[in-house]
UniProtKB/TrEMBL annotation:
Enzyme Commission (EC) number: 1.1.3.6, 5.3.3.1
A Gene Ontology BP annotation from the UniProt entry: cholesterol metabolic process
Keyword flag Oxidoreductase: yes
GO molecular function, one term: steroid Delta-isomerase activity
Signal peptide (residue range): 1-29
Protein known as: Cholesterol oxidase
Glucose-methanol-choline oxidoreductase C-terminal domain segment(s): 466-519
Annotated source species: Williamsia herbipolensis
UniProt pathway annotation: Steroid metabolism; cholesterol degradation
Length: 535
């Protein structure tokens, strides 16, 4: 980690919104710590029944809740984390440069760079799932991963899309209807020139200049951001959050169109959707009469269990995120809580070939203060089976110190896949990832492209040091476990509509837009065909 202080490294990895933060923070938390709270005998048990239960409030859960509610269906959304309200000058989210208890999910052992930190237990934002050769980062909170992602919102080209996804999804229909619908919901915009030309945005300009000089395509990246907030920051009208990259783990000022303020807000406005926060699903069962039974812990913000709930429903939608959806279903299958699950469950998992680099230059002045989150990227998709994307991500200012460092992030098409196995001792499904899973796309495309842009500057491959991903995909994939609309094969009333449904890779794009578009497509079909019969 030459030329980069530990504090600068933490700030930069958080700013880039990819997995290098994960391993140093929580990679040593191999075993969940369990509940911190009263003995089970002192916890009240209640029972409820609902027409539809959705587990998770990220992109898949948000789309599901809104579209079912608009079709007249009442929905209960179970979210294990908190609400994170924002607004000008708010202090809701923690800062990457001064992390506190809000950054970590209470079940993980609080560690920074392998050393204990004195954080109190909290229902925080980031939860690491540690597997063999890979750590996957999961978000907790209303809005799921959209709370903490940088916001790159990319629609893959058709020929790249078809390297990973079945043609039966009908890309033309997705491109005509569902991707544009997501773009409207998230109110996508690219950064205005007036902002990009300002002093804090020198690092993005350097990236664009270097990439063009290397003969690479360069374009602005669509983002779910109202950029007038950043312009107002430049004018001194609010505390900086965008213009100094302080919003790398959640934007306090607002203006970011995350799922909580788009899909979930509209869903709740129908009057048919209830979002239950700090409701963590612990077990899933199929009852003898064909209903679904969900065992839930309601906790306080310290993770103490206040109430046990058993919730029964004829329709259960798993949208808890790739890792948690897959692990819950695999545990249920292994313990015969759900019988006859498809054989492909737990297979087809991928990291989206995520890669993050710190980039330190002796000749370029990236700036002690760098505006963010993301402006430019290079979408090199001319060879579909080897398509990659590389973007620049700014880092938060650390005490005004100019480390002459910024970040580059890459991802690309990869056939590398891992799988989960059930460990009865841990009562958990453990990810098994081959150490060379994404080696081909990394060694032949992402790495060489990043080095072309850096042109001899110092690069640190942080993912090579700490193998991890913020974009886990697969585990209950379409085709093997589910149909294209997320119906789990042979399990009436059970659906998967999140990253677990994806085929392990999102075609050289970060996955948020495709997860949402495929969920939108699925809900069109489910409303037409399942509402009133199964749902």
């Amino acid at each position: 980690m030459a030329d980069v202080s530990r504090r600068s490294f933490l700030a930069g990895t958080a700013a880039a919104g990819v997995a290098a933060l994960a391993a140093p923070v929580v990679a040593q938390a191999q075993t969940p710590q369990g509940h911190r709270g009263p003995a089970p005998a002192s916890v009240r048990l209640t029972r409820e029944s609902h027409r539809v239960v959705v587990v998770g409030s990220g992109f898949g859960g948000g789309v599901t809740a809104l579209r079912l509610a608009q079709a007249g269906v009442p929905v209960l959304v179970l979210e294990r984390g908190n609400r994170w309200p924002t607004g000008p000058n708010a202090k809701t989210f923690p800062l990457a440069t001064a992390p506190d208890k809000r950054i970590l999910w209470h079940r993980g052992a609080p560690q920074l760079f392998g050393k204990p930190v004195g954080f109190e237990p909290y229902t925080g934002l980031l939860d690491a799932v540690v597997g063999e050769n890979m750590t996957a980062i999961c978000a907790a909170g209303v809005g799921g991963g959209s709370l903490i992602y940088q916001g790159m919102t990319l629609q893959p080209a058709e020929d790249v899309f078809l390297t990973q996804f079945p043609e039966q999804l009908d890309y033309a229909r997705l491109a005509r209807t569902h991707y544009p619908r997501v773009a409207r919901m998230l109110q996508l915009e690219t950064a205005p020139d007036a902002l990009v030309d300002s002093p804090p945005y020198h690092a993005p300009r350097v990236f664009a200049k270097r990439a063009r000089a290397a003969g690479l395509p360069v374009s602005k990246i669509p983002m779910p951001i109202d950029w007038t907030y950043a312009l107002r920051e430049l004018r001194g009208e609010m505390t900086p959050s965008y213009t100094n990259s302080a919003g790398s783990i959640g934007v306090n000022n607002g203006g970011k169109h995350s799922v909580d303020v788009t899909y979930i807000k509209q869903a709740e406005a129908t009057g048919r959707v209830t979002v239950a926060v700090r409701h963590e699903v612990r077990e899933v069962f199929r009852t003898r009469n064909g209903q679904w039974e969900v065992h839930v812990d309601r906790t306080d913000t310290a993770g103490r269990v206040l109430e046990n709930k058993i919730i029964t429903t004829p329709t259960l939608v798993m949208a808890a995120g790739t890792m948690n959806t897959t692990r819950l279903l695999m545990r249920a299958a292994a313990k015969d809580q759900i019988t006859d699950m498809p054989d492909g469950l737990g297979r087809g998992w991928g990291s989206n070939a995520d890669r993050i680099y710190s980039w330190t230059s002796a000749t370029e002045d990236f700036g002690a203060v760098q505006g963010g989150p993301v402006v430019y990227g290079s979408l090199d998709w001319s060879r579909p089976t080897e398509a990659i994307t590389v973007i620049q991500a700014s880092i938060p200012s650390v005490a005004g110190i100019d480390s002459r460092t910024t970040m580059m992030v890459g991802y690309g098409v990869s056939e590398g896949r891992g799988h989960f196995t059930y460990d009865s001792r841990a009562d958990d499904a453990i990810l098994r990832w081959p150490a060379d899973g994404d080696a081909h796309i990394q060694n032949t495309r992402i790495g060489p492209t990043v080095r072309k842009i850096a042109r001899g500057d110092n690069l640190t491959d942080t993912t090579g040091i700490f193998p991890n991903t913020w974009h886990p995909l697969g585990g209950a994939s379409m085709g093997t476990v589910c149909d294209l609309d997320g119906r789990v094969r042979g399990q009436k009333g059970l659906y998967v509509l999140d990253g677990a449904l994806m085929p392990g890779n999102c075609a050289a794009c970060n996955p948020s837009m495709t997860i949402a578009a495929i969920a939108e497509r699925a809900l069109d079909n489910l409303v037409a065909n399942d509402v009133g019969t199964i749902i």
